[in-house]
């Protein structure tokens, strides 16, 4: 299952070296952390200064970042200083705060001196793109001290101490691949087969990128002739646009992945971001989720063991419209209840009933972007339209990933969309169209 959004593709404009240090609350014991997989991204539960939150586990960032707090959330921070952060996207650097000596608890994996970078821009909200609350991101500090396994099959993150007796046995049957750590991020060299040519490509290993692969165009790396322009996602510094295509294959030592999707972000999205030397792109979770991956930062290795996702197709949105949650709305739902009666006349036309009306908060779904000349654009759908129904079902009854599955399900499928614009209701039929 390959999903749509590419959230949290972040790069800091300067090196922010963290003093954070995790330890096991019970020495010598592993940590077993359940996670939610949304759009291929790994979301783990954390407790920060007493508040229960959800964080994205992202190898593509150096430090812990906090954003998207509700008005009801209350967290105390000490030792504050102002900083600037620049991320992928065409916008400017944004204001943030740096806080030290925070208490971060992730199951029995604990840091009592954790540094947190707090984003002040209320418009940065990745929860809307994932369909579940996500309050922050944690990166290098989580991985640096111990072995970390992301087991996509079991939906668990395991943290093991290096000295554990079971460690060597656990890794023995996995494929070991060398990595380098540069600016507190992991990089791997792979072979991309593009335009009938094998190209050695140094890639950031980026669990915070829900796409399969990103490549940066240069004199040698060029998008193939078959591509389409698309909205690729949203970073800290704005929207990211580029080309979407397919590689002929990707070689990770003995593993060969056929026809993966690949994105080529445009120059405006990359402007002002500092890359490490010879970096050619990113290896995202669209590929990583096909393995159970163990990260060994101390020895500069990763260990791969392919799982049941390995042969999943690399799908993409064939409607051309991207969706997001945009706030909540109260919805009145009528519930019909049968009364308790001793005898019922089956010939009666009206059975005794009573009704109950529930008012509950439901997400508002709006169109985030529409690709020009796509099926959605040709059907008249525009950015900002509010979805009301999909195939006759109220839109809020779907989870966001379920709608994404519909929009990338199969070429030629018709999808009926009812939407609202300027307080007027419209109806459109979209036929999914395969481009790649």
From TrEMBL:
One Pfam match: PDZ_6
Keyword hit for Iron-sulfur: no
Parts forming coiled coils: none
Domain called PDZ: residue spans: 343-393
GO biological process, one term: proteolysis
Annotated signal sequence range: 1-25
Keyword GTP-binding: no
GO MF: aspartic-type endopeptidase activity
Domain Peptidase A2 as annotated: residue spans: 53-90
Family annotation (SMART domains): PDZ (SM00228)
Keywords assigned by UniProt, alphabetized: Hydrolase, Signal
SUPFAM superfamilies tied to this protein: PDZ domain-like (SSF50156)
Highest taxon in the source lineage: Bacteria
Protein name: PDZ domain-containing protein
């Amino acid at each position: 299952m390959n999903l749509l959004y590419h959230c949290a593709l972040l790069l800091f404009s300067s090196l922010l070296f963290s003093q954070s240090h995790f330890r096991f609350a019970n020495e010598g014991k592993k940590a077993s952390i359940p996670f939610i997989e949304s759009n291929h991204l790994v979301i783990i539960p954390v407790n920060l200064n007493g508040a229960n939150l959800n964080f994205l586990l992202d190898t593509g960032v150096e430090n812990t970042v906090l954003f998207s707090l509700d008005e009801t959330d209350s967290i105390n921070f000490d030792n504050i200083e102002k900083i600037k952060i620049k991320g992928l996207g065409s916008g400017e650097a944004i204001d943030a705060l740096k806080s030290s000596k925070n208490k971060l608890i992730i199951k029995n994996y604990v840091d009592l001196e954790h540094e947190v970078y707090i984003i002040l821009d209320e418009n940065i909200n990745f929860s809307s793109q994932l369909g579940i609350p996500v309050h922050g991101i944690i990166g290098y500090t989580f991985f640096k001290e111990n072995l970390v396994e992301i087991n996509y099959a079991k939906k668990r993150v395991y943290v093991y101490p290096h000295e554990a007796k079971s460690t060597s046995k656990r890794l023995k049957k996995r494929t070991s691949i060398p990595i380098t750590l540069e600016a507190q991020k992991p990089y791997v060299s792979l072979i991309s087969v593009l335009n009938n040519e094998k190209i050695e490509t140094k890639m950031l290993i980026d669990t915070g990128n829900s796409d399969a692969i990103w490549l940066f165009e240069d004199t040698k790396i060029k998008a193939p002739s078959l591509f389409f322009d698309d909205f690729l996602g949203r970073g800290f510094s704005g929207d990211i646009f580029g080309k979407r295509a397919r590689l002929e294959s990707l070689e990770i030592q003995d593993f060969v992945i056929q026809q993966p999707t690949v994105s080529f972000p445009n120059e405006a999205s990359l402007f002002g971001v500092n890359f490490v030397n010879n970096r050619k792109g990113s290896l995202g979770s669209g590929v990583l989720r096909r393995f159970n991956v163990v990260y060994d930062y101390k020895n500069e290795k990763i260990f791969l063991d392919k799982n049941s996702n390995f042969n999943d197709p690399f799908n993409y949105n064939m409607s051309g419209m991207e969706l997001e949650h945009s706030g909540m709305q109260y919805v009145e739902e009528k519930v019909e209840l049968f009364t308790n009666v001793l005898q019922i006349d089956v010939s009666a036309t009206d059975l005794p009933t009573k009704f109950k009306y529930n008012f509950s908060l439901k997400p508002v779904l709006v169109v985030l972007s529409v690709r020009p000349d796509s099926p959605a654009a040709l059907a008249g759908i525009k950015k900002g339209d509010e979805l009301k129904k999909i195939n006759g079902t109220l839109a809020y009854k779907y989870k966001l990933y379920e709608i994404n599955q519909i929009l990338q399900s199969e070429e030629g499928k018709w999808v009926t969309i009812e939407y609202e614009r300027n307080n007027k209701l419209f109806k459109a039929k979209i036929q999914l169209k395969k481009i790649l």
